[in-house]
Amino acid sequence: MRHAPFRRLSLAWITTNLGDSALYLALAVWVKELTGSDGAAGLVFAALGLPALLAPLAGQIADRMSRRRLLVLANLATAVVVLTMFAVRGPGDVWVIYVATFLYGLAGYVTAAAQSGLLRDMLSDDELPGATGMYSTIDQGLRLVSPLLGTGLYALAGPQAVLVLTAACFVVTAMLLLTIRLTETPPQPAHERGGYWHEVSAGFRTLAGESTLRLLTVVIAVAFGITGLLNVAIFPMLEQGIGVGVQALGIAVTVQGLGALVGGLTSAAIVRRIGERRLVGLGLLDMGLGLAFGVLVVLLVPAGHPAGLPLASLALSVVGLGIPWVVVGVSTYRMRVTPATLQGRTSAAMNLSFNGPQTLATLVGAAVIAVVDYRLLLGVCAVVIVACAVACRPLTPDGARPAVP
Fold it and tell me: Can you give the CATH number for the domain in which 345 is found?
């Protein structure tokens, strides 16, 4: 925090996450109320994840220009996209929400790639764990209030009020980013980037070029991918399993945020003790066990029982505890071993590796939720994530720098 650019970037991170956390759950609730369909509501999360397919292009853009300038433009464009959803008037306009959500998600990949490069330019290797842990803490801490703020504002004033709040947050973020002053690493010269496909694929080749980075990418891709089923199963879990309305989704995510807040606060200290790879394994194990406990709750506790919601909340808080450990572990390792000129492309490649499978699983879940018991989907998620935790074992010492293809 002694670095002024980092302090300003952190403040911008707070404002953008405030708007982001308030919006995406409200959109799912909005679609559910417009259509009455669990599958249609789950498709909001699919639309949010589909831009992962364009993540390599976002990373290429981030590595070709000033990351600070790109962040400003992306946040302003996101505000405009959010406001286009004022055109929604009924079920026939749900496609507007899907399109806007897709563009909104694409902007998120652009900003993630650009921010990775800025952080690498601002901080030393020793400062990266603390920075990634702090950002995860901010992100998860805001989930304690933003989902309730978003769904509460939705209930009191309608979805348009949530849209205005979110757009305002992104405009404020852009204004804060304009005040950052730092010397950025210049992009690779054109003659060093090679052909177009060689340049775009450099992030993937870097992830595959070092054994630990390759292991973490594959393991988390599988674990995070299977959680796409949860994006659809959460609605029948709340309504049928626990016996509450879909508006309780805001409460559920807030409770998960409590555990995630603890995870974010402890991640930097733990990663210094056990290393990034073991922290990822510990986080995945925690997530899998939390989901397994959630499955037991919906199997053993009757819907509407007073103990149902508290026990399900406890399960979600356990899941939330492990998420920052996974994210901080893999993000810190990737930034630490990746050259500054490749930060945007490796960030984008990793995001695609994680979110692409998750989006596919969300689409599968939306297609089968009407015929497959949601409890089976939850059980599959728990088993796969625990298996991924077991597979996340040491292969090489942490810290080896991959060869840049």
Answer: 1.20.1250.20
In the numeric block, the tokens 């956390």 are attached to 21
Does residue 11 form part of some domain? yes
pLDDT tens sequence across 79-121: 999 999 999 888 888 999 999 999 988 898 888 888 888 888 8
Amino acid at 49: G
Q: Which amino acid belongs to residue 133?
A: G
Measured in whole angstroms, how far is the alpha carbon of residue 70 from the centre of its chain? Answer: 20
User: CA 13, CA 402: separation in Å to the nearest integer?
Assistant: 29
**DSSP string computed for 28-49:** HHHHHHHH--HHHHHHHHHHHH
CA pair distance 363, 347, nearest whole angstrom? 24
The pTM assigned to this predicted structure is 0.73
How is residue 260 annotated by DSSP?
Answer: H
For tokens 């399900």, the residue is 312
The verdict on residue 368 lying in a domain is yes
- Burial class for 305, CB neighbours closer than 10 Å (0-12, 13-18, 19+): middle
The dihedral built from the CA positions of residue 72, 66, 143 and 354, taken in this order, carries a sign that is positive
CA dihedral 313, 157, 46, 324 (to 10 degrees): -40
For 121, the domain range is: 4-391
> Where do we find the tokens 């909005």?
30
* Helix and strand totals (H; E) in the chain: 18, 0
